[in-house]
Amino acid sequence: MKALRVVCLSVALLGSTLLVSACGGDKNEAKSPEKEVAMDDALALLPGSPIAVGTVDARAFFGSATFGAELAKLVEKYVPIGQEAGFQASRDVDRVTYASYSYQGIDVAAIVIGRFDSAKIKQVAQNQTPTKGGAPLVVSSYAGREVYTVNNIGFTLLSDQRAVVGTESGIRRVLERIKDKRVQRDIPGWMISTVETSGAAFSVAADFASQPLPPEATRQMPSPLVHGLKAARAVGTFKDGVQIAGSVTYAEAAQTEAAAEQIRKAASYSKALALIGIQIKSFDTKVEKTDAQVTIHIDDQSLKQMLASVPALLGQ
Description:
36% of the residues are buried. Helix content is 36%, strand content 28%. The chain has 316 residues and is an alpha+beta fold. It has 14 helices and twelve strands.
């Protein structure tokens, strides 16, 4: 059930919604240009010390000529808020930048860029109008802002173009940074450079040196993959299908070689992936010092078939 909640939250991050926040203060007081820029910077809004940080170019995904339509159907099915709040995720979400933390278990905070109808959202909450998912919007207040919750997904609007979405602890940490005027880039530079890879449809970087994997996770993974693991990166682009370039970094070269061999063995799993519709066109692994580098090329037509089958796989 925990895994299913994470899946649903990930889908919801491609599109929850939220309320306009007024800019207070003395109108005659000059605003700090640095603070204005920071408030427009998703990576500055997110707290430091993440386990992982990533971004998704929603427009690139929804705009795919092959699987975009199927993805839109899937997202609209699982995002709990819809037209009753003036929101359609596949139409209104442009980009999601997110990070995960270990505050109380695994917490998530995401900055969603798009278009949000704050008036309709507020009306739905005030009138207790059932959302598309059937649950009402529950309103609470934190750090001077209204926070909405529906089906255990929380969100608050920073503006009609920017929302914070995630778990309760994740949202609160973002709002505390804003209230305390601590909005700045505290995420490690190497993670930021991965996330900001030019032309990427999605990217993610994970820090396991300062944020080790929990014991329950390491028990479920082959030991060569987790022993000495320090970092992981992945960048995806849409070129003749979906290209994913990733790397995992280890403390020692011998650990890297062992992990690379385990990854090569994992290439045989492509046959299992074919059972749910994912076709791997190529899979390449090489070692460079303490990095094991992986390149995967996935047939995008097979992703269309896989996305169409997700509701059936979830028994719906």
